[in-house]
Every structure is written in C-alpha cells, then in structure tokens.
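Running log. JK asked me to keep both predictions on one page so they can be read side by side. First protein, sequence followed by its tokens:
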Amino acid sequence: MERNQFAGFVLIALLLVGYLTYNQYEQKKLEDFKKAEAAKNPKKAPQGKDSTAVAAAAAATQAAIPDSVKKLMPPAFNGTSQVVTLENSKVSVQFNTKGAFPVAASLKEYTTYGKKALYLFNGNNNHLTAILPTDNGRSTETLFFTPEVKNDGKGGQSIDFAADMGGGKKVELIYSLPANDYMMQCNVVLTGMTAQELKLNWLTNAVHTEKDINNERLNTQVYYRFKDGDNDYFTVRTGEDKSHESSSATHWVGFRKQYFSTVLISEDGFTHMSTKASMKAEDTTNVAFNQAELMLPLKATGNGTASGAMKWYMGPNDYRTLKAYNMGLDEMVPLGTGIFAFVKYINRGILIPIFYMLSGFISNYAIIIILMTIFIRLILSFFTYKSYLSSAKMRVLKPELDELRAKFGEDQQKMSMEQMKMYRTAGVNPLGGCLPMLFQIPILLSLYNMFPSFIEFRQRGFLWAEDLSTYDSIASWTTNIPFLSSVYGNHISLFTLLMTASSLFLAIYNRNMTPQDPNNPMMKYMPYVFPVILMGWFNKMAAALTFYYTFSNLLSIAQQFIIQKYFIDEKAIHAQIQENRTKGPTTSKWQQRLEEMQKLQAEKAKQPKGGKK
C-alpha cells in the first residue's frame, strides 16, 4: 500500500470514529432530553386512552427538539410537509406527507349548489391518524412520510407512504384508488412493532355544498353497521353533542350528509368504536363535525411485521352505487324510518325499480315523476273507484238518513242503531269509502321518503324550479318574521302553493260529492285546515316531492270527474239498493260486532247510576 493511500485510509477511519463518537453523544443528548420531558409529564396518557393529548404532547416534544439534533434523527422525525394527490376519474384526494392522511377530497362529477368544486371535506382539521405501539403511544401525525406514487395503467393510482423511525421500526400507509370507483383501499403495515390492534383517530368536517345549510343539517347522521348485520344511526343536532360507543365488531362507520358520505370500513370489523358528532349554528362553512375512535385489528404477516386493512368510501349517497358494494351502505339512503320503516320495502321492491327503469330511457326527471304518478294512479284505480262508488251509495241514502235524524233527534244511540240497520238492509258498507283510500297512504309515505333522498334529482331543473332536490323559491327575504320565519321559512315555494291550492280544490270537490254529518261539524272544516297546516312543512321540502303531490292532486280531480261522469250511475245504484232490500239483509261479521256493541251501550245507558235495574 502506498503512503498516500495509507494516509487517506487513516484519515477516513479517524473521520468515521469521530462521526460515530459525535453521533453517540448526540443520541445520548436526545435520550436525556426525552427523559427530562417525560419527567415533566409523568401522567401522560397510555396507548388507547386520551390519544389526542398523547399526539399533542408528542408534537410539542418534537417541536422543542433542537435543529442540530433533528438532523441526526431518522427520516420520520426530520422532513418537510408536502401535499400529494391521489385521483381517478371520480375522486381526487389530497394527502399531507406529515401524517400521511387525507386533508381534502373532491368529487369530479359533482359541483356545489353554487357550481363550484365539491369537497366532501377540506382543510388540515380533517385527519385519520394511528396511535403506534411505541414511544408511549406516538401518533402518525407527528411523522414525516416519504410518498411513492404509482399508476396501475388502468386509470387507477396508489401511494405508498413510508416512515422510517430508525431502530428497525417502520410505518407504511398504503392508499390505492381503483379506476372509476369511490372506494379507496387503505392498508397499514407496521415493522418492528408488535400489536394485535391499532387505535385510529378519525376527524371529519363536512363542508356545506347545498342550497340550504339548515336542510343539510336536518339530514346529517352518523350511521354504523355491525358484523352481525344489524345497523343503526343517530341524527346530529345543532347545539348538542351526539355520540355512540360499542365494543361489538363494527363493519363500518359512516358520516352522512344530505347527498354525500364518507365511510370507514373494516372487513374484519373494528373491535371497538366510539363516535361523537356536533354542529355549530354560527358556522356557515361546515355542516357538522364528526370524531371517531376505532380499533383496527392487525394480523401478523411474518418477519416482525403486522398489517391491517380498511376501505374508505368517499362519494354520493346514490342508492345503486351504495347497494352495489353489497355491505349495507344503501341503508344510508333514508327510504323509511321509525314507525314508517315498512315503507322502505315498498320503495325497494316497487317504486325504485320503476324509477330506474324509466330513467333508463328518459332523461327528464320531471317527466319520470309524471309517469310514475300516472302508473300509481292506474294501479290504485280499482280502490279509487270503490271509494267513489261507496260515496255515491251514501248520497243515494242521504234522504233516508235525514229522515232518521229528524225522527230520533238527539238520541244518538237509537240513531246509530237505526242507521246501521238501514245500511245492512241496503247492502251498503259505511266504511267502503274509507278503506280503499287507506291503501294509498303507504304509497304517499313511500314517495315522501324516496324523492327528497334521491340524489338523481339534485341540480335537475323543471319549469321555474332550478333544482328538484330542494325547494323552488320564487321569492325570499332575509328579515326574520316572528313565528312565520320559524314555521313557514323566509321564502315562497310555488309548487307548495300549487299543492295547497289543488288540495283545497279537491277537498271542496269531495265535500260536494260526499254527504256530511251535521252532528260532527269539525269534520266539515278539517279537509280545508289540513292542507294549510301542511303548507308550512312542505314549503321547505324538495320540489320533486311538492311537484308530485301537485300533479297527483290534479290527476285525482280529473280521475274523480271521469269516474263520476262516466262510470257511476246513481239511478242504477238506487235500483240496486232497492233490490238488496227485497232480498233481505246480509250482515257482515264486522256489522254484527258493531251492532252488539251498540246494544250493550244502549242497555248500559238505561241502567241507573248504581248499576241496578
């Protein structure tokens, strides 16, 4: 070896020894610094408890580390924050390399009511972080990740975020977004850290996107579904925190706005779930806030690694899209809840298939509403005819009813018994006009739930209504009018006015065609009062719904006119009643029970107050 080569070798060795010595000194200095910080905070929360405080403490500790020390730390503790985008044809998701979590998600095929880019969430207050089983519960939001973006060649992308923590410890957060899909895959891989589950903190601020933020808030819920197939939800309300906690295996947790949702899904089931949501009335940018803590199960994959898998849905509350995932996400489209939960089966089994069949070749959704209304009326025409036929029989018997009232005066017991006797001999069912109409109520309730929930009506116009998914405002004001503003609102919906006017006209028409009971004057005015009361409620409803009710009323008027004009002959009905009387009375079981009850009431009325005859 030449002298110069030997001198160079010695110099390199001295430099290496010097670097190692200095590095050991700085590492000891760092350890002493950590111990000093730990001594100042002896009650720091352990992993799995008060993770927000743990993350804040870890961030404060890192911020206090001198720059000279940071340079010697592993890459995960020394980096710069950047924004990286993952996207396909439907979704664009922005990530912060510090923490490797999404800070914004926009949907490319949708815009806000104001025609701006639609964000489900946006801003650094949105995050998904993991509490690692190291450093007394270190949060991933304190780590700097190195991203590697890959294209799958089919329109999809993936990003592999890696954070080298040194000492053989490494965290990988891998996100992949297939082409033409709203479902993002999320995988967590831990190396050099042992754990059977990983605690996740998920915070979402839902951005205001629709015409009326109050309507958005009325339709904001947190949904959750368990691995056993059971599901539930709670509605978020202004001024109060709503929460739920469960140790049952939770399949998914979703934060739903009126027409869009974000959902975290674990095929193995989150072993623990707690969620809390709130609203701030003064906030005009965000609809609501949701914070969830989830325990993600991990599987050992060998070589000192453990991994957990999730899916993250970021997209519209489109019934077909959600149902196609086959995991119960379509439950987030409210088609019937509470005591009217049964109507969702009518929607799913009848009305929704009809709607999608028509939308397959008709692009105008108002025409679809018209065709659905006509179809429903045709299906119910038999019951409608029966109802009008019963009303015609009652009109024919009205003169005889008037004679009974004049004969028995105020003796209601005797009047009722004679009235039932007359109905029985004439072969008339007094409830014949009511029962057929009851079959229409489930349809009305089904559409009441379906139309405001279907995103297909969103930003679809008809006539003066620019958006069928919200109210059609022809006039509005900002001044708060006591009682009126709270009940009716600060706008006028023309379809609601037309719905009310047509309902009143239909009530007047029916009143003229139906005999009235003079002993029950309240029933005389109820058909007129009810539409006016509902006007305040429907003034805030989707134009698709109020248009349906308006057209349905007009169709009912036309249908009733045609039936009365061309299908009901009161002379023939009178002749049939007389023929029934010659044949003798036929008593139904219902009439028999009713008469027995009336006889018992009459006998009790004759008894003295002491109960003895």
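And the second, directly underneath as requested:
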Amino acid sequence: MTEILAPAGDEKCAYAAINAGANAIYLGLSAFSARSSAENFGYDALEKLIAHAHLFGVKIYVAMNTLVKDGELEEFIKSAVKVHNLGADALIIQDIYLGAYLKKTYPQMCLHLSTQAGVCNAYGARYAKELGFSRVILARETKLSDIAEIAKIIETEVFVQGALCTCFSGQCYLSSFAGGNSGNRGKCKQPCRKRYSIDRKGFEELAYRISLSDLSVGEDVEKLIEAGVSSFKIEGRMRRPEYVSAAVNYYKNLLDGSIKKCDLSALKRTYNRGNYTKGLAFGQDKSFLSAAVQGHIGEYLGTVSVESGKYILRTAESLSEGDGFKILRGGKEVGGAVFGGKVKGGYILKSAQRLKNGDKVFITTDGKLNAELLNKKRTLKVEISARFAEGEQPQVIVNGAMYTASFTVERAQGRPFTVENFTTCFNKIDTYPFEIVYKNIDIEGEIFVPLSLLNAFRREVYADIYVNHCPNGAEMIDKCLQLPQAEKPSKCAKTAVIARSLSGVKADIGILKPDDYFKDFSPLIKSFDGEKFLYLPPYLTGEEIVRIKPLINAFDGIYCGGNYAATLAKELKIKLFAGVGFNIFNYLSLSLCPADYVALSKELTVAEAKPLARENTFYLTAGDVKVMDLIYCPFGKSCGQCDKRDIYTLTDENGRAFPMRRYEVSGCRFELFNCANLVCENNFTGKLTDLTADGVTYKNHTKGHTEAPVL
C-alpha cells in the first residue's frame, strides 16, 4: 500500500493528519529543522504524539534536515539518539555524510535522505543506499522515468501536493546571500516569492517572476504508483490543520476510489497557490508559474456585480458569516472581501477596496468546511472481554491482550456487581480515542467489586493500551558515543578556477562550465595545462548522464554539487571534485567524503571554514556566486518568442540586479547569481585555498564585492 505522508508544523496539524487518515507524519524538532519558523515539537510533545500515532499504526518521521556546524555536532547527535529512543520511525537527514556517520555508529537508526540532498537519478539513489539510508525523498524536479528507476533501487518518497521550491533542492542560497537567512539552516525568508522584473520583452513589469504554483498531482498518482513510489508526501509544515486534513482526505479517497468533486474543492479552499500544477515530473505545464498571484488563491465562485452601491456575488454556493474571499481583476489580486449577508439569489461582499463589475471572486476561507475538517475523529476499536469470580483476581482481555487486576473479588453482602456496573466503568475513556465494543463479560455468582479499585484498574489498562499498542520496534540506543577527533588544519597548495572557458586561465585545476553540453568544447580546454575537470550541474536526468558520459573522457575528473557524482566518478574511475553544492559543513562530513578535492560550503564563514582546511579542500573566495539552479523556464517555455540570450537580469523591487545565466543540457536551464561578486580579502596562507568562480561576465553586470557569507 502506498503511504500518505502528512506534514505537521504543530500538534494541531499532527492530530488533524491522524484523524483524517494519514499513514505517516513528518515533523521537526525545535532545533535542526529546515522549517524553523514552524512551531515544531519539543521532546515531551513528541513522545506524546508518537504514542498516539502508533496507536493507529501511524508512523512518525522526524526532520533533522539542516546543515550542522562543528560546534553543533555533539548536540545534534544527542538529539538524534533521543528522538530514536522516543520511538520515531525514521530520522530525515540532509547531510548525506552526517547520516552515514549516524548509521555506522548507531545501526539501529532508520534514516531517510531529505529532498535537500537533491537525489534525482539512479546514481544518487545507489549512493544513498550504499551509505545506509533506507529511503530517499526525491527532488521535486525528478522525471517520472527516473522515479521508476530509483524505485527499483531504494524505497522512494515523492511530493504530490503543496508548495514548490523555485531552486533545485538543497542548492538555494538566495535567502542566505541576499538577506542573511540560510534556507539550508531552516531560516529561509522565501525571496523567490517576491516581485521581480526580467530584461526580456514582455517580462519587464514587476511580477512574481520566479514564484511557482502549488503542486497537485491529483489523479496522476496512479502513474507514480506504477513507477513504484512508496510514499506520497504532502508539503506544508507551515500550513494550517484544515489544509492538512483536506489534503490527506483528498489523496486517501483518490487511492481507495471514493474521490468526490467536493474533495478537490476542499483542498482548493484550504490552500491553493496559483491554481495548481502537475509539476516537473509530468513536464512544465502552463500553470507552473504563478506570476500574477502570490499566496492562497482559493476556489473560484463567480464575479462581482455592483448593484445600488453594494457588491453582490450571485452563486448557488452556501456561504455564511466568517467566510473570506480574494478578488482578482485581469488575473491580478486587487484586494479581499468578507461575507456581508444574504440577498435574493446571492450574497453581499464587504470590501475595503473599490470593486468593479466582473471582478473574479475566490473563496479562501470557508468556515463551515474548516469546522467539518477539524471535527474528524479517528478512534481505535477496543474489544473487551472480562471474567469476574469469587476468590479470583479480575481478568480483562483487550484486543487479545490479557490484564489481571491486583485485587481479589469477594462475595457480595449487599447489591451484587453487574455487567452494567462493569460497562459503565469501562465506558469512561477519558481523552483516549477508543471505541469500546464488549464481547463476553462473564460474572460468576453474586460478587462484590469495589468501584474505586475497578476504576484504578481501568485506568491502568487503558494507559497500557495507549502507550504499548504499537511499540517502537527498533532497538534502543544505550548512550551517545564520543565523537572522533577532528584532524588538524593543513594547507592545500593548489588553486582552482571555475570558468566558461579555460583559455588563458592560470590555475592548478581548471573546471570547465560549458554553455552547451552537447557542442564541441575541446577548443575551450586545449590550451589549459593543469588538471581539467568538467562541471556537471547538480541536477541531471539518467538520460542526460548517458549522453554526457563520453564527453568526460577528455577530462581528468568531474566537478559537481550533486551527491550522485560520487557514484558516477567511481563508475568511470575518474577524479571527483565535490563542489560547494555538496554542502560540506563540518569535519565529520568532510572526513567521510570520498572526493579527491572538496569545495567547502559557501555558507561557511572564513572562521568556520579554516578548521576544515585540508590538503584537498578549497574555499570560494572570488567571482560570481551562484544562488539558484532553475530546472524550469522562467519565461513559461515561450520558445517561439525567446531571444535565447546567454545572460538575463532579474531585478528586485529595490533595484538589485541578479544575473541569470542560460545554458543548455537537454533544452534550456538557468542559473541565478548574487547581485554582487564575492571578493574575500582575508589572508588564507597556511589554511584555505582559493576557488574562483566565473559564472557570468558581461557588460551590464556591475562588479561589486561582499565579504564571506554570514549566516
């Protein structure tokens, strides 16, 4: 059976997911979660939730999927061990090497590799399995054909509903560099949801140019089932419990064949950004971008009619006090409205904005629906049999488990104990989600049972059922082992340069980053005397890797920010330069990375990077800083009108210009660079070695500089 996996940013969302019928829930701790803005969970709340979830066979996956610095390692390991011992069914980890360390040190742990690790092809899946992960959460950009190949290798989790990230998973640094808030550290401020202009005809106006519609795979989940997907993931740890309930209900009904039109309606009304897209697994569709509307758009109901100075909505829908609406004109949001009363054939809308005839009305808050979604209750059927006899200790059998009371039944001196006395007592379920069904209640003779003792016995029985109905099957971890010592910093004597042409470049290592991977680029490398590496994008499909393999023969190795490159380099028996996208953040991960050369994460400060200096490590010190990899076309695939320039400029509302480079693999891809170049003037002698990136160089790009990134 395919798992329906629901998000929980707080306890209300978690219990809404259980009550709606989710098979599993993923959530974050108060620390080390990629959604730090969510309420998240402390240990006590987590323990309580795990017990409640396991009662219904619902699994709990705990996201500890941020990048971890050296000084945080000990606390991170302790937290991971505690979460495991509380009964979590799996931990979600972003850092593939930190996960490998956990699995090697504590083999009892079940680990899922976060979507932030960017697994998108079979090479990445094999690597995750090799390092001890039992499941991969695939990048949202993964093609359906690659999903099928990955599912043959390892258990696979795929997003089917919710927000889409603009950037390829784990490779987004825009929030970090443009605002000082790292998405990889759980602090993303979502700059992709802001307004931008692009210097191309038809795109000059400020709009939500890189904001994507919400994903809703819908009935195409059947294709994912055929591909072998194990878990359907609903995004939304920042969303409300009614959304969680509606989304779980929608996919549950899709899978069991009981889907109704109102299920999709409920989903749209609880959260819907951009009227949905099927996502890149099924190809970039016309609704992929949501340039005109940002945030919840709801469900379309009709248009505004201005009558006698009032705004009237004519609809057969049943609306009521507390309902809220969004108003669109010409595809753009112009304001909101609330329920203002009934009129014949419709309803009055109250709005602070001046509305016009024909304005479109979308319902974004449906009070009755929300109440209905949150009133769902999931109960556990509890079958009870009992035996009471004089001189014996009472016995109760609950769902096959026998419980014996600590007291002995006596002969009745007055009114005897009855079946009704017993059921009245055991009907008191307190806050437990039990549905009591009585089978055989055997009372022999006239007996006396003290109700105070029976009540205490009932509480013991129900508490044991609640906690131990579905116990954690994993072996407990006795204690945290001491972390290994880090190596002393050492100097790397080499320099490396990433460039679109290596002609005229002076460096020990030259990394060619071609504009077109399937054009002859031998002229770009023939005059370079050092080690030659081919830059591979962090996202490649399996088909693209097959096509690129022969091109690698002209190089000494590959440079890549995607983990899949470790398996590819091993297969081809060539050198691996682990790029900044590997996000090497601490000495444990560095020690386990098998690359010949390693570029440390560009989100580390100089002070944090210096202890990680080794004979094979590099630190980005100059040049253009890539902040996003876009696997889609920001122009909506309007290929017939496209001028296909190498470089465009994305400009925000503050006038900051971000270069956007177009390159070709199997069609166009785009890279977004920071609005200022990196020029780090610190003295690195004896510690760190320069890695220079020349991603974009063109006349309109103002050369600026910034210090090393500060998180």
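Observation for JK regarding the second prediction: The first helix runs from residue 11 to 20.
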